[in-house]
Automatic annotation (TrEMBL):
Its main location: cytoplasm. It comes from Alishewanella tabrizica. The active site is at residues 133, 161. This is 4-hydroxy-tetrahydrodipicolinate synthase. It is found in: Cytoplasm. Belongs to the DapA family. Pfam families: DHDPS. CDD domains: DHDPS (cd00950). The record marks 44, 107 as: Part of a proton relay during catalysis. Homotetramer; dimer of dimers.
């Protein structure tokens, strides 16, 4: 079962837009040291939509070598069409990943019947575990609990990242899915309550910049320590909110750059860098979470 604090990892880039493998190595080391329970590579936060398949493969290979089996690595393999999702799955097949994160097909708005057929076909293309990814705000479709229940009968479909932010949706999934089916929050703002209600973990954007705190919350939830969960999560609420003040991962990359963990906050078009009007908002969120960052003018010294 995939569980705990799993990071939806950004893909660092140089100022001229190339993948920054040195910064990537630094980021992965940071998460291994800070206690993250897993990594998602080439999800939404990783800007998979603007990287070539060759670049995606190279990033995954680099991460897998560095992680060396110490924590699980999930690879994003989602696509608009079933044939493309299968092709991506097979393209990554020889990598030592622990499974795939497969988002609902986006833009073309398939029916529940279509999504059932889609995920069934993708699962048949691999023996590795698949975690479904439901994020209606991004894709325009909602993978409903009855469809998830049907997919959960397929042996290598082992969980779901549920990003509706609805705790009632969690209860619906719990009612129809096997007890060993991983229920992972995809919504940082509500993930603590998701865990306290019986969820198994989170695939998180906030964990990019606050991995130790996110891991501590997951551990407290596993102990059923509600007081600790709520207290720890309260410090992160501004981050949960403000890391989405612009399209993800714009604010997260800026924060990581200011923390000195990546050398540039570059994003490939059509995403652009953080608007100056939002800088103070992210700074305040970092301060509330107790996260140190570098001075914006000199990028030296610690605030």
């Amino acid at each position: 079962m995939f569980s705990g604090s799993i990071v939806a990892l950004v893909t660092p880039m140089t100022a001229d837009g190339q993948v920054d493998f040195d910064s990537l190595q630094q980021l992965v080391a940071f998460h291994l040291e800070q206690g993250s329970d897993g990594l998602v590579i080439m999800g939404t936060t990783g800007e998979a939509a603007t990287l070539s398949l060759a670049e995606q493969y190279a990033v995954m290979a680099k991460v897998c070598r560095q992680v060396a089996g110490n924590i699980p690595v999930l690879a994003g393999n989602g696509a608009m069409s079933t044939s493309d999702a299968i092709a991506k799955t097979q393209f990554f097949a020889d990598l030592p990943i622990d499974g795939y994160l497969t988002v609902t097909p986006f833009y073309n708005k398939p029916t529940q019947k279509g999504m059932l057929a889609h995920f069934t076909a993708v699962a048949a293309a691999t023996s590795k575990p698949i975690v479904l990814y439901n994020v209606p705000g991004r894709t325009g479709v909602d993978l409903l609990p009855e469809t998830v229940a049907a997919l959960a009968t397929i042996p290598n479909i082992v969980g779901i990242k549920e990003a509706t932010g609805s705790l009632s949706r969690l209860a619906e999934l719990q009612a129809v899915c096997p007890t060993d089916f991983s229920l992972l929050s995809g919504d940082d703002a509500t993930f603590a309550q998701f865990l306290l209600a019986g969820g198994h973990g989170v695939i998180s954007v906030t964990a990019n910049v606050a991995p130790a705190a996110m891991s501590a919350i997951c551990q407290a939830a596993a102990r059923s320590d509600k007081t600790e969960v709520v207290a720890q999560d309260q410090r992160l609420q501004a981050l949960h909110r403000d890391l989405f003040i612009e399209s993800n991962p714009i604010p997260t990359k800026w924060a990581l750059w200011r923390m000195g963990l990546i050398t540039s906050d570059f994003l490939r078009l059509p995403l652009t860098q953080l608007e100056p009007i939002n800088i103070a908002i992210i700074e305040q969120a970092l301060q509330q979470a107790g996260i140190h960052y570098q001075d914006r003018n000199s990028l030296s010294g610690v605030v």
